[in-house]
Amino acid sequence: MTRSDTARQLWSIALPAMLTNVATALFGLADMWAIGRLGDAPAQGAVELGAKFMLGLLNVFNFLRTSTVALTAQGSGRSDGWVQPQTLARAMTVAMGIAALLLLAMPWAISIGLDLLGATGPLRDDAQAYVAFRYWAGPLWLANCVLVGWLIGQRKVRYVLYIEIAANLVHIALDLLLVLVAHWGVAGVAAATVSSEALKFALLAAVVVREGAAREALTAIGRRSTWARADLMQLFALNRDLFARTLLLTAALLIFARSGAQAGPVTLAANGILFQLFMLATLLLDGFESAAQVLCGEALGAGARSRFTAAVRAALFWGGLTGLAVSCLYALGGAWLAAAFSTDPQVIAATRDYAVWLALLPLLGVVSFVLDGVFVGAGWTRAMLGTMAAAMALYLALLVGLRPLGNHGLWAAFAVLFAARAVGQGLVLPRLSRRSFSAS
């Protein structure tokens, strides 16, 4: 396979995934913009804090998506027709089990979570109203992780893109209707999210049913081979490492949000706007992570080391180039863009003060995003967890050491977290590659 063939395959997955992820990011941006039209910094801060709570609660289970992508792609590389329905059956069973536990934990999870985020006074009341409504979308979010992962693992990313766009348009329309017309405020933002998540599930399920995968997955549930000990242990090990790694990353995000909340509602609102714009860049660049997961998973399943190496190089090259472009765009217009998400003069001034970090983060983080895809696709989740733990330790040390710099110190520590992850993954990549393909 030539270099141009690899690049073409990469972009055939990455571009739809990038557009899908941008549509996903627009959910959060639409929420911040709609609530920002009210000119109420505490309400805007409450949405940011509530969104961080839900991110912390649900994002630790994102392994449902990533492991489904990896196992489906590896099965395609081995040309094993039963892997796809078996993977879907196992993953959806796990997702529904987690959903049941989350609903049982709801009465006390919300209170404890807001305590950990340092929410007090009117800010806490608004954040609690947001979370209490949005919490009910949790089971739908978990199921959608599995369905999206299964479709991406089969290179059916365009279906995901079309569905994400449709759900996003509905979400934005509901934000405008419920917040600005019906004046539901924070509750309106939460209701828009729940409704769009339900629509996404309905559309994804319809695609899976049309593809015949739903029937095959139901058949796979009754097959003894689906629940073979070796396959379950592989799934458990993969999900365990991904869960622990995501837990660390989510903890870093929650610490970031808590530190912003302690600085007051204006700083919290400004950080929330900048963070949503960073997430837009992250989800854009994560398209290369999705492509790396699929191409590296297929190459590993087929035992093709040259294909694997070519996929890694292509993902790093094109991902790095795109990250540089995004950083340049944010350097030129990031402050102006952030100011459009609030009418509060103090919040606007604060976003301008810290917009420099918005320009640096995409370039610093893109290598770690790409290598995450490589490591997940290859099944090197234990190594990915180890590099994340080391980066997290450095992040916590910098939070203390850079405290005199205030909010700039917080953003600097956050930036180093991503750079340190990339360095750690780059150091262990050659050894892992030699070990995985030693028999090739």
UniProtKB/TrEMBL annotation:
It is found in: Membrane. Coiled coil: none annotated. GO terms for cellular component: plasma membrane. It is a multi-pass membrane protein. One of its GO terms (molecular function) is antiporter activity. Keywords: Membrane, Transmembrane, Transmembrane helix. The chain crosses the membrane at residues 12-33, 53-73, 94-113, 133-152, 159-181, 187-209, 242-260, 266-285, 315-342, 354-376, 383-402, 408-429. It comes from the Bacteria. CDD domains: MATE_DinF_like. The keyword Transmembrane helix applies. PANTHER family: PROTEIN DETOXIFICATION 44, CHLOROPLASTIC, PROTEIN DETOXIFICATION 44, CHLOROPLASTIC-RELATED. This is Multidrug transporter MatE.
